[in-house]
Amino acid sequence: MEHAKLYINGMTCINCQTRIQNALTKHPGITQAAVSYETETADILYDSSVISLEQIQGLIDELGYSASVQKTSRAKIVNQTLRELDIIVILYFLLRHFGILNYLAPASLADAQMGYGMLFVIGLITSVHCIAMCGGINLSQTLQKDSEPSANVSRAMFQNAAAYNAGRIISYTIIGGILGGIGAFTGMAGTLQTSSFFQGLLKLLAGALMVVMGINMLGLFPGLRRFHLRISMPLFQKGKQKDASKGISKRSNASHRRRTPFIIGLFNGLMPCGPLQSMQIVALASANPFTGALSMFFFALGTIPLMLGFGSIVAGLGKHFTKVGRESQETFCNYRTMMSNFVEM
């Protein structure tokens, strides 16, 4: 047995750690693999007569990351970061120049006198924004394993998309009720101006989280990688030892995969998204728990056709799309927290 330590570039969230570790431990010849998102390393114990270190690096590269026996120099990271920042700045000014940056989240979106029908229509319109901000989360909860039969894959993908969106509706409704109650308690009935502090606080918190996540992705300050959100995904089952005596049953894994999209949908209500914040202000200004809950419910209902349709299209494409989609998912998974407030900046 031989031991090797590899440095991995490209891990953007804690689930990348789990994904790499699972892929390595399942491969013949690899006895143990301990992957760390915080240190961007992998400690591997392997049988060199079965698999070589170059092949192990190839396995990691196939997952969309890069592995090397030497740590990437800080100068190289800084240079790459500067090039990426140049592109971001150019895109920002282009979007701002053409008025696209806040097109789907205008400041006048919230109106305390809106009817439920109008809230539903706003949900339909801003669901395009939802695809941009939450489409990656939806996709991450929809994709299935390649080993499943095609018919089972399509059915499970549709069920996951439905569960994720059901969680969103429930979360939005509950939050609307809570905000309506807060509005009643603080006397915010019929006014949106007094709730500007609430909206500003959300944006400040989201902005701080976005900065930390961005720095983590760039790898500029490795110490900040200790601050992360651990959100499990159906594709990224928790690390399993090859010891059959520990055996996590397939049934328990399937049950976990079914629950996860719904739970992620519930957490989706806490996302600092522009249109969502506007509707939360409407619920707050209603100063009524029941009215606030209904306001958020109809808004959430309006976002369902496009969001569920997005998941259904992926499900319809089935197994042939899964491999490509899984690779795309790695790019989108960071939208869960980091990109959720980019449109408002």
UniProtKB/TrEMBL annotation:
Keywords: Membrane, Metal-binding, Transmembrane, Transmembrane helix. Residues 2-68 form the HMA domain. InterPro entries: Heavy-metal-associated_CS (IPR017969), HMA_dom (IPR006121), HMA_dom_sf (IPR036163), UreH-like_TM_dom (IPR039447). GO terms for molecular function: metal ion binding. The keyword Ubl conjugation does not apply. Pfam families: DsbD_2, HMA. The chain crosses the membrane at residues 85-105, 117-139, 169-192, 204-224, 260-285, 297-318. The keyword Transmembrane helix applies. This is Sulfite exporter TauE/SafE family protein. It comes from Anthropogastromicrobium aceti.
